[in-house]
Structure formats: C-alpha cells, structure tokens
Amino acid sequence: MHKATIRKHVVRKFLENYITPNEKQQIMKISGTNGNNLHKAVTESGESFLLSMPKKFRKIFWIKRGDFVIVDPIEEGDKVKGEISFILYTDHIHYLRKLGIWPKEFEAGGVGGQLQEEAQKDECKTKEQDEEENDCDNSESDNELDLFVNTNRATVWYSESDEDSDKDDDDKD
Length: 173
Hints:
By secondary structure, the chain is an alpha+beta fold. The chain has helices at 3-16, 90-99, 114-130, 142-145, 162-172, and strands spanning 26-35, 38-42, 48-52, 68-73, 80-88. A five-stranded mixed barrel has the order 1-2-3-5-4. A hairpin with a 5-residue loop joins strand 2 (38-42) and strand 3.
C-alpha cells in the first residue's frame, strides 16, 4: 500500500471511530516529551512513566502536553511501560464522559483540570487589570473552552509598573 493511502486510513480511523478502553488499557494524560517518540504520561492515580509512539502514528499525529491517550501496557519494559494505542480528541473525551468511563481524577478538580483552571484564573486577573469596569465571568461557553491554547510554552505575563516608567522618564532628561 502507498504511504498516502495508509495515512488516509489511519487518520480516518482516529477521527471517525469512538472506542472505549478495555480492561488492560488505561487513559493517561501526556505531561511532556522525551524525544525519539517517547512521551511522559501520568495515570489517574498520579503515577508517571514513559510511553512509546507506534510507527504508524509518527509523522501523522502530534501529541502535546495536556493531551489524553489510551495506552496498552508493556510488561517487559524497564523504562517504557506502555504504548499509545489511541489519541483522544475533544469529541472522544465528551463521548467517554457520557458513557461514564472518564476518570474522575481528570475532571476539573483533578490532575487534568488544574492547568485549565490556572489558565482561566490568570486570564481573569489580566482582564481585571486591563479593564476594571468589566467583571470576569468563569461561565464561558464550551466553544470558548475549545479554543487552541499552546500548552508547550510556559505562560508569562508582563506588566509595566509606574516605577519603571518613571525611571525611563528620568533617563531621558
């Protein structure tokens, strides 16, 4: 089979199929990458270890920090303890939540929701600083929560203080 045909079938499998993990598989959250198609992941209990990306997914799908995957365990591995079998996107996550299979630890108060809650709090703080007359609401619609946020970069907020601007004015005189 040609590479483009294989890629088409793999992409179609991921975007159209909704799967549920079996008793051996588990849902994990990606916490970082180690290179060479190895990814650090965290289980719902908080245990962290390395996962490998299968060859059929390489150069087709990219995984970033904060994404969720379904993992097949590897029994004989010393460092690498699992292999990614399915990458979960927002539609898949909503489907698993409706079925009641989604781990409670990855909900808003758990391991998975902490980064999202912190980002919302930081966003509210900056909005309050910029516009004091508008109140920040955490009651955002689902569409606004699905906006892309680059989780591979640390969020840094810069602010100009009055002291810095006074020093710059004194230097100019």
